[in-house]
Structures are given as C-alpha cells and as structure tokens.
Amino acid sequence: MSETARHQAVPQVRPPVVMFLGDSFTVGSGPVAEWDTYAAGTARSLGWQLITAGGAGTGYIARGRIGRTFEQSFARQLAWRPAPDLVVVSGGHNDRRARPAGVREAVLRLVGNVRERWPLARIVLVGPIWIDTAPKEAYRTRDAIASAAWLAGVPFLDPLTQRWIRDDRTRVLLSDGIHPTLYGHLRLARWLVGTLRARGLAGDAAAPPALVGPEPS
User: Where in the numbering of this chain does the SGNH hydrolase-type esterase domain appear (predicted)?
Assistant: First the structure.
C-alpha cells in the first residue's frame, strides 16, 4: 500500500468544537492574553478546538465596556457559526449588583437561545469566579445561576466552592486584586478539567454519565 493510500485509510477524527462565552476571566485581562486564560488551558488539556466570545465587565445582565450582555455577545459572535459540540457560559462576577431574579431569567433566556440555535449542542454553566474572598452578593448571583441551571436541566459548576488563595496570594492574583495571574489561570484550568471529567462532560469515553443541575451541598 502506498503512503498516500495509508493516510487515506486512516479515519480523521475531528476534535470537539467548544465555545466559551464569558467575561474578562474568560477572554483575558491585564498581562494574561486570551490564549493563556483558563478557557484556553482547558481546551489544550482536553484537545478541544476553542472559540471564545464575550468581553471585560460583561455578564448575564452587565454590559461591560463592549456594551453587550452574554445574550447579545452570543447573538453577535457565536450564533451565526456552525454548531459546536459544547457551549460553556462562564460568568456572573459582574452581575453581583443585579437582582437575582433578573439574573435567573437572563440565564434561562440565553440557554433557550443556545438550544434553539443548536439543539444537539451540550451546555455547561460555570458560576462566578472570585480568586479572593467573595462578597455576599456573589453568592446570591451564584445561587440564581445554579437555580436557572437546575430549571433548564444543564450542569452547573461552582468556582466559589474552591479556595484559590492559600499562602500564595501574589502568585495567583494580579495587583488589581480581582483577576488571576497566569498561574491563577493554570489553577482554574486544572480545576475545570478535573470537574468536567468527574461529571462526564469532557468527552472522555471512560467518564461517568453527566449529572445535571446544581452540585449537591
């Protein structure tokens, strides 16, 4: 068999296409570029083809510097593309001052939009990321997103359950006191990869079936 024939005989496996929609934690901030964020690190670890959307200061309600909510960024940056295998919506940090009921409604509306556009795509919601101690409002926002995830029947992953700072504050947190360093993004990616695998959402053949709804307390 010729070299060309051997190459043609090997089936080509397409890597999963995964879209991340989020805020500055997802798209990059300060010295951390988009290709070095936890979203990119997760994609590299799992062999995903990554598409990133959203912008700094945005959320389900918050419009940020780009003047768009997650729903609007989905419509402008993602909805016109071919269907992905997975859509990860990660955020809520910038919605902490919004009414929880309004956040829940916005989450349900966005999930509905994604499902209407791509009925076969899986959806995962990741709650607000807080590297330092989170304020009470962040937990109310987290609970609103978790509630919407449960109602919509999609998995919810909660970064607020993690202790990101131990004795290495300057190693994981930028001087702005909000965003993770490059090492902080690496920590986030390791957590997300492990959590996705544990809940059967990473595309691993040997992973257990995916669980839906909020994590048990």
Answer: 20-185
Q: Is 60 exceeded by the pLDDT of residue 1?
A: no
Q: State the DSSP code for 62.
A: -
Q: How far apart are the first and last CA of the chain?
A: 59
The whole-angstrom separation of Cα 131 and Cα 134 is: 8
Domains and CATH numbers, the chain: 17-198 (3.40.50.1110)
Q: Cα–Cα distances in Å, from 66 out to 23, 69, 162, 178? A: 11, 9, 29, 19
One-letter amino acid of 183? Y
State the average pLDDT for the chain. Answer: 90
Angle (CA) 102 51 192, round 5°: 70
CA separation for the pair 37, 35 (Å, rounded): 6
C-alpha torsion sign, points 132, 35, 110, 116 = negative
Contacts of 3 (CB under 8 A, 6+ apart): none
39's enclosing H/E stretch is helix 38-46
- pLDDT tens column, 91-112: 999 999 999 999 999 999 999 9
Give the C-alpha distances (Å, rounded to integers) separating 107 from 37, 70, 90, 136, 157: 23, 9, 11, 20, 14
